Amino acid sequence: MASASFLKSSPILNKSEWLNGQSLRQPSATVVRCNPVAPSPLTIRAGAYADELVKTAKTIASPGRGILAMDESNATCGKRLASIGLENTEANRQAFRTLLVSVPGLGNYVSGAILFEETLYQSTVEGKKIVDVLVEQGIVPGIKTDKGLVPLAGSNDESWCQGLDGLASRSAAYYQQGARFCKWRTVVSIPNGPSALAVKEAAWGLARYAAISQDNGLVPIVEPEILLDGEHGIDETFEVAQKVWAEVFFYLAQNNVMFEGILLKPSMVTPGAECKERATPEKVAEYTLNLLHRRIPPAVPGIMFLSGGQSEVEATLNLNAMNQSPNPWHVSFSYARALQNTCLKTWGGRPENVSAAQEALLIRAKANSLAQLGKYTGEGESEESKKGMFVKGYTY
């Protein structure tokens, strides 16, 4: 895989040349050769955004910071609002998203925010573009670009992620709107196999998405989520995750994806949610880091873990345990419910609670910032933050 420095020093192909997979041939020296020299098989990816992609990825993967995932679909956002007695209207979604992005000082702990399409084009209740509010906080705007999970024909009741059709034009439009990274979530179910077909479909879809995203200036977050559903133990999760990530990186390489310009959003290696034997943060860290060292190239700048239904505190403790020793990557968070839950409950849809809700989000963001630095202690956490949030068959 070509490094960023190699891309800078290499001859630049125009777009039509590298799309056709043309290989670079070195000029021949004035040496008599007995046999013809075969052309180099190396195809150089020299997209116009290469330097920007690397810079964006490094900005998001900056010390003590992680990602706020607020890319719930309108339907899922409606479920969250319903839990506090609010109707699922655009005005209510706008109010909650305004609350999230306008937390004073959030940019000290959050480097990127993943948005749903509605939110990317939305303004705050005060009329300011949400993208502009994030940028002023030093937070990189991102966008969910997949079109959701659908049944995978010929599989063991498994899913695949749709959305490749039209992705290039959508990504170009999102870039113009201010997005600089994107997310594509596909899932693998351990109780349902996973079948070789489902793993291959997940890996290939992620690779095509990543290549198309980079071509249009967006840093792709690569997210094959190993679902928590099931009674399996941590060893089985580890074996499945090894298989999935091997396949993912094989196809990323096949599609000429520049590793320095991607981010990963893996599941932590944990037992299934219904497994009777639970794992300590230290054990989760041991298994997860072993997986990373075996499968993830150090060229990848950031590993931004999803919480996957863990409680707020559990997700933070596990992240902290993984940062007790140096890693070749920035090991951090990309949490949705594990950042938003207490904030949402504190707000309750009441204007007078906005400040308290924003303070709750800031507390969680700061806790995960400390965990990214390996300095989180878990002291003073609320009972709400310790409640598990696993939902069987979770979709959004």
Number of strands: 10
The poorly predicted ranges are 1-34, 36-40
What radius of gyration results from the CA coordinates? 22 Å
Structural class: alpha/beta
Examine the secondary-structure arrangement and name the CATH architecture.
Answer: Alpha-Beta Barrel
Strand arrangement within the widest β-sheet reads: 1-2-3-6-7-8-9-10
Report the CATH superfamily. Answer: Aldolase class I
Q: Give the SSE order as H and E letters.
A: HHHEHHEHHEEEHEHEHEHEHEHH
Report on this model:
- It contains 14 helices and 10 strands.
- Helix 9 crosses helix 10 and helix 12 packs antiparallel against helix 13.
- The protein has 396 residues and is of the alpha/beta class.
- It has a single domain, classed as Alpha-Beta Barrel (TIM Barrel), CATH 3.20.20.70.
- Helix 11 (281-295) links the parallel strand 8 and strand 9 (302-305).
- The chain has helices at 4-9, 15-19, 50-60, 74-82, 90-101, 117-120, 130-136, 167-177, 196-215, 234-254, 281-295, 312-322, 337-347, 354-372; strands spanning 66-70, 110-115, 140-144, 149-151, 159-161, 181-188, 219-226, 263-264, 302-305, 330-335.
- The strands form 2 sheets. It has an 8-stranded parallel β-barrel, surrounded by 6 helices.
- It starts with a helix and ends in a 24-residue tail after the last helix.
- This is Fructose-bisphosphate aldolase.
- Its main location: plastid.
- InterPro entries: Aldolase_I_AS, Aldolase_TIM, FBA_I.
- It is an enzyme of class 4 (lyase).
- It is found in: Plastid, Chloroplast.
